[in-house]
Design a protein that fits this description.
single chain, 1256 residues, seven-stranded parallel β-sheet, 44 helices
Length: 1256
């Protein structure tokens, strides 16, 4: 669309404002379902009422409130209040009320901790006082006005153990959702400076005296709020009171109330993170008239008339023809990942679909390194903390994490962050060694290798002669065959598809050609019999018979003209001698010349009639001669003077007329077939042995001719290209690894070389150096430390120079960074399927270009901060229809699919997901070993009972299994594997957590195992227990999958599976079953057949299929696995019986047969996914293991989208999964198949011998 006038422009502005307001309204969920707006009742999962503590120990609330208000001063003055932590419920207090409170605190603490772990955001607050009343007659609010950040902790200790209440080192905040409700539902126009005046109130409280702090604070808040909205102070309740629950009916009956303050004191989850994003929308709306929308324009259907857009135009990127300087990566990558990096430079926005384990974090890290190499500013956004931590950890593996700022936990640890930044300024850049290559130099070397390897691959893969590749021809051709025909002199117009038919034609005429086109055959040299019929054949026979009969009665001249003259000459000789017999003498002389004999009277007398008969002979003979070519005519004419030989030859010709049909058929084919066939056969007559199979040799001649032409066109195939290939391949692998190190060092030098402290002091400093000094001074402060946002406002230019990459949640982005277009050159979004569009618009506004990564087959957007007040039971839960950022982006932009699966050690762990959700398109490494004692998926059957949405028997079995794993794995491997437990609902999750805690308290051996397993482990390797709603992004070595569902005590099975039974529920299953790296254990109290097809959605059906698949995998029943997968994905390539040989090419068949002849057991096309290993040699002493994988340079070899993937990444990938890989080249096989088989045979023996030596 083109904006042609102001009217059209205004339409765009109005539309943009409507869109912004639409997304802003969705953001805070200003409804009565939001507990921050209307707290209807206390749910243990979300809140805890402090009045319960006063029942246990009077005065507890007063102490908590006093410490809370005192902490304001400590926070504002950067003084850590050592007393900001208080034991609120001692273990030593034993009564029913205390036990009840402990249980509730545990539930709440778990939930707050889970949210913080997932998001890195503060969600725990102490809220008071509450504002309640009606903004309008139909809407009631009852929510905390002021929120004090807190956390809960249980400390198990000998003295004074119990529950502790911690005040965070943060200032109190306003309840943004409540303020938004006043604006939206009440229509109140709040003063622009309402936040500043609230901050002033908080500043004043920091200097308050200790006496009557709570009352003083209440009055101050009341005084502040009544300047904004009307307050009925007569209804205010300054005394702490318990919260009365409100039902739906209570709300309907509730009379309109004026606003007033009530001193409820509630701790718990009052989500506020979206407040900052909400404020961004205010600024976006203010600036909408500029139509400056950037990358979000296409997403929200708005055109920016002045925006320069980037569009690659070509949906396919030729990676091998892209200069390597465009790929500055620090981690290994495959072609689909490389394509993302290249596309991010050509397009405004790139969408990446990353199924489980396909290396999204790998791509993100490489996007970062490429951007930093090119001096770009990068922001990585994800609302899940774990995903951002993975990115930072991966950067840390190469030493780049120190240049990355991770805005986690709502910026708690500023001092640590600032110390990190100052350390960069202090760092002396490491000088570049004389011999060290630059990024440009090593990229040029890589380009050279890629060019050679790509050229060789292209030469082998390119199709010639209508469909033949060099690889195909090498496979068919006999490398030992020496060509003798000159096919270049033949007009050989022949395609690959026509070759077999062409050779069949040669074979069909070979026998006849050898016989009838041989010079010794009496009919050799004949003209075309193709048009002859029975009459012509009969006439030939008649002529021959007459000639045979006449020849003995004739005296013949060697041509018909002379024959015609002879009777006259004989008559002159006998009857007209002439004067002095001159005529007689002349006739005699001519007769002698014609017949070549001495003429006598008796000869003439005796032969007069014979020469007359010769005229009749020649008349017939001339007709016969017309059947032959000129050369054969001369040959036959030369025979007439030797009657005996002539008659013999004519007799042979007459006899050969019995083959007339065969000769006629040959002549017909001469007319029908290509002329080149008979031109080739003509050469073969003189160069082949008559006993050879000419058609077989001609086929080899054609192969040789074709290969000569191909090699002439592709000189790279001449000589010994495979040795050159191996050398270049090894060099490429070495250079790629070297470049990754060089890229890392280059980034480090660029950042560390920006400034050094010694340039910031002394005389003659530049203004910039003075600014650097002021900036570094701020970073070194221990007190009155500037908030990150303020530091960014003052020193953004310097911050970006030493920290060009930032990791943050959407909320942190809005909190820290100014709302400025093109603030970041590249914004990368992870887990975008779970990110609602309204949370993404503001941070994408800050992007010049963006990459959006996620997977629509995983979890959709969800209530991340659990804003809704109702505590939903499984049966009532709803699946969100919220549109994710990923879903929206996929409708507007081309999607790049990541295609290689890296996470799972065994293909069995991902096969189900691959075929159930991704149509089998993921490339997965086949298993190198199938251990019947340790199947990748174990099935444990329990006899559990479903009771109140829990299964206690199964939960106990899960805890037992955790212990068994730690004991057995440590004994076998000397290390503890990481473990994760996944349940279908939150209640089963909590029950398992309870059982683990009980076991830790009562079982010293379990406690010791637990402690040892976690000692020195990374946070992301600690034991987790989660339900399917919040496990996306996690992975562990071993996953225990607690199905939970079972028959109840009466033996009834409900056949309902919570969110799994809802729309999109199958995606939750997909997430759950793809978290394991090494092993999955399915603990189930039901059989697959127990699940009946009653749901209209796919979730239960997929669960049944997964349980079937798990049981088949447990028993290593490959055929059963295939049957389940084939039911799910009918397009899955089936090979019937698992041991049945199937081949990708004739080349593989030849190799397979030769290996079998050597006594090796070989399986073909090994694997369940789109990628298969061509041939796999089974270990001679262990049928459950493959000793060697063999790749032939066929379809699998050429299916790689880049040289880097084909020749470096894929082999490294397979070796990482336990394979030893050898490659057989078709050209080497063509030259010397025995040598290649000997080489493979030797490798097999070497591997077997090596294992024996190692064991010894």
């Amino acid at each position: 669309m083109s904006i042609e006038n102001d009217t059209e422009r205004q339409k765009q502005i109005d539309k943009l404002i409507r869109n912004y307001k639409f997304y802003q309204d969705k953001l805070l969920q200003v409804t009565q379902k939001n507990r921050s707006v209307l707290l209807k009742k206390i749910y243990n999962k979300h809140n805890f009422e402090l009045t319960q503590l006063d029942k246990i120990k009077e005065g507890t609330i007063e102490k908590i409130v006093s410490k809370t208000i005192k902490n304001i001063g400590a926070t504002l003055n950067d003084k850590k209040d050592e007393g900001a932590s208080q034991n609120i419920l001692l273990d030593s207090i034993e009564n029913d009320d205390a036990d009840s409170a402990r249980s509730k605190l545990k539930i709440l603490s778990r939930n707050l901790m889970q949210i913080e772990e997932e998001t890195g955001q503060q969600t725990g607050y102490l809220g008071f006082p509450f504002l309640q009343g009606h903004p309008n007659p139909d809407f009631y609010i009852r929510g905390p006005l002021v929120l004090f950040p807190i956390s809960l902790e249980y400390k198990r200790q000998a003295k004074n153990g119990g529950w502790f209440f911690h005040l965070a080192d943060k200032r109190p905040i306003l309840n943004g959702a409540l303020i938004a409700a006043l604006k939206k539902k009440g229509g109140y126009q709040l003063p622009e400076n309402y936040e500043e005046t609230f901050d002033d109130l908080i500043e004043e409280m920091s200097n308050a005296k200790d006496e009557n702090l709570e009352e003083y604070f209440f009055k101050k808040v009341n005084g502040w709020i009544k300047t904004i909205i009307p307050i009925d102070e007569t209804k205010n309740q300054i005394q702490t009171v318990p919260l009365e629950p409100l039902s739906k009916e209570d709300l309907e009956k509730l009379e309109k109330q004026p606003f007033h303050l009530v001193n409820y004191k509630i701790i718990g989850n009052f989500p506020q993170a979206d407040n900052e994003i909400y404020k961004d929308y205010n600024d976006l709306i203010k600036n909408a008239n500029l139509l400056d929308v950037g990358v979000i324009g296409e997403l929200i259907d708005i055109e920016d008339p002045d925006r320069e857009t980037f569009d690659s135009g070509d949906p396919q990127i030729d990676i091998d023809n892209t200069k390597d300087i465009e790929l500055n990566t620090i981690l290994s990558s495959d072609s689909s990942q490389d394509e993302v990096i290249l596309e991010s430079k050509n397009s405004d926005l790139v969408v990446v679909r990353g199924p489980p384990g396909t290396g999204k974090s790998q791509v993100i890290v490489n996007l970062i390194s490429d951007a930093l190499t090119n001096n770009k500013k990068v922001l990585v956004v994800c609302q899940k903390r774990a995903a951002l931590e993975v990115v930072k950890q991966r950067l840390g593996q190469v030493g780049l994490d120190r240049y990355v700022v991770f805005l986690e936990k709502e910026l708690d640890d500023r001092l640590k962050m600032y110390a990190q930044l100052y350390g960069i300024i202090e760092e002396e850049p490491k000088p570049m060694s004389y011999s060290e290559l630059t990024v440009d130099e090593i990229s040029t070397k890589i380009d050279s290798c890629v060019q050679y390897l790509s050229g060789l691959g292209n030469a082998l893969r390119k199709e010639y002669f209508g469909g033949a590749t060099a690889q195909k021809i090498y496979t068919k051709a006999d490398g030992q065959y020496n060509p003798v025909l000159d096919l270049s002199s033949v007009d050989l117009v022949l395609g690959w598809a026509e070759l077999d038919g062409y050779i069949q034609k040669i074979q069909s005429v070979e026998t006849a050609f050898k016989r009838f086109e041989d010079k010794s055959h009496p009919w050799f040299g004949r003209k075309d019999f193709a048009e002859f019929g029975i009459m012509e054949k009969s006439r030939l026979n008649e002529w021959l018979q007459k000639l045979i009969d006449l020849a003995p009665r004739c005296t013949l001249a060697n041509n018909s003209k002379d024959q015609a003259d002879l009777p006259l000459l004989f008559d002159i000789y006998l009857n007209h001698p002439g004067f002095l017999k001159t005529k007689r003498r002349g006739a005699a002389k001519e007769i002698e010349q014609i017949l070549g004999i001495k003429v006598t009277d008796s000869f003439v007398s005796e032969n007069f009639e014979r020469v007359k008969n010769g005229i009749a002979f020649w008349k017939i003979f001339s007709d016969l001669l017309a059947v032959f070519d000129h050369k054969k005519q001369r040959e036959l004419e030369s025979m007439v003077t030797d009657t005996r030989s002539l008659v013999s030859y004519l007799t042979e010709m007459q006899s050969s007329l019995g083959e007339f049909d065969a000769m006629q058929e040959l002549d017909k084919k001469k007319n029908e077939y290509e002329k080149s066939i008979f031109a080739i056969l003509d050469q073969a007559k003189t160069r082949f042995n008559i006993d050879d199979d000419w058609f077989s040799r001609i086929k080899q001649e054609i192969y040789a001719y074709w290969l000569a032409k191909i090699e002439q066109e592709n000189p790279i195939l001449k000589g010994d290209p495979i040795s050159n290939y191996q050398r270049e391949k090894n060099e490429l692998a070495k250079l790629m690894e070297q470049k990754r190190q060089i890229v890392t060092k280059t980034i480090q030098r660029k950042i560390e070389g920006v400034i050094h402290p010694r340039y910031m002091y002394g005389r003659n400093r530049t203004d910039e150096q003075k600014e650097w000094r002021a900036f570094s001074t701020e970073l070194k402060k221990k007190r009155k430390v500037k908030p990150v946002r303020k530091l960014f406002q003052d020193y953004s230019h310097y911050l970006f120079q030493i920290a060009p990459c930032w990791l943050a949640s959407p909320e942190s982005v809005s909190k820290v960074f100014p709302l400025k277009r093109n603030l970041f050159d590249l914004v990368i979004v992870d887990e975008a399927s779970q990110l609602a569009v309204e949370r993404a618009i503001p941070f994408l506004y800050r992007a010049r270009r963006a990459v959006i990564a996620g997977d629509e087959k995983q979890l959709p957007p969800f209530d991340l901060f659990q804003i809704r007040e109702e505590e939903l039971e499984d049966e009532d839960e709803e699946i969100s229809d919220e549109k994710s950022l990923l879903e929206l982006a996929r409708t507007r932009y081309r999607t790049i699919n990541l295609s290689w699966h890296y996470r799972s050690k065994y293909q069995d762990l991902i096969n189900f997901s691959n075929h159930a959700f991704y149509e089998g398109l993921l490339n997965v490494a086949p298993n190198a070993i199938n251990d019947p004692q340790h199947p990748p998926i174990r099935w444990i059957r329990c006899n559990g009972v479903w009771d109140h949405q829990t299964n206690a028997i199964e939960a106990k079995r899960v805890v037992d299994e955790i212990r068994n794993i730690w004991e057995s794995k440590f004994e076998q491997e000397g290390a503890y594997p990481s473990i994760g437990v996944i349940t279908f609902n939150e209640r089963q999750q909590d029950l398992i957590k309870d059982f683990i805690e009980t076991r830790l308290e009562t079982d010293p051996e379990f406690l010791e195992l637990y402690t040892s397993a976690h000692e020195g482990a990374k946070k992301d390797d600690s034991l987790f227990v989660k339900n399917i709603e919040n496990v996306q992004g996690d992975e562990r070595d071993i996953i225990i999958f607690s199905v939970g569902y079972a028959k109840d005590a009466e033996g009834r099975f409900a056949n309902f599976f919570g969110t799994l039974s809802m729309k999109g529920g199958e995606n939750r299953l997909n997430v759950a079953v793809t978290r394991a790296r090494k092993e999955m254990i399915v603990v189930s109290s039901i059989e697959p057949a127990d699940i009946k097809p009653t749901s209209k959605y796919d979730g239960p059906k997929r669960l049944r299929q997964f349980l079937e698949y798990a049981k088949m995998t447990n028993s290593l029943n490959e055929e059963g696995q295939r049957a389940v997968l084939a039911e799910i994905n009918p397009d899955m390539e089936r090979i019937g019986e698992s041991k049945k040989a199937e081949f990708d090419s004739d080349f593989e068949i030849q190799v397979y047969k030769k290996l079998q002849e050597r006594g090796h057991r070989v399986e073909t096309q090994v694997g369940f996914s789109g990628y298969k290993i061509d041939l796999a040699v089974i270990h001679p002493h262990d049928e459950n293991r493959y000793l060697l994988g063999i790749e032939c340079d066929g379809a699998s070899f050429h299916s790689a989208k880049s040289v880097r993937e084909r020749d470096v990444m894929r082999q490294k990938f397979l070796e990482g999964k336990g394979w030893t890989i050898e490659r057989i080249w078709s050209r080497n096989w063509w030259r010397n198949p025995k040598h290649e088989i000997d080489r493979i045979d030797a490798k097999i023996n070497e591997l077997v011998k090596g294992e024996v030596v190692q064991k010894w």
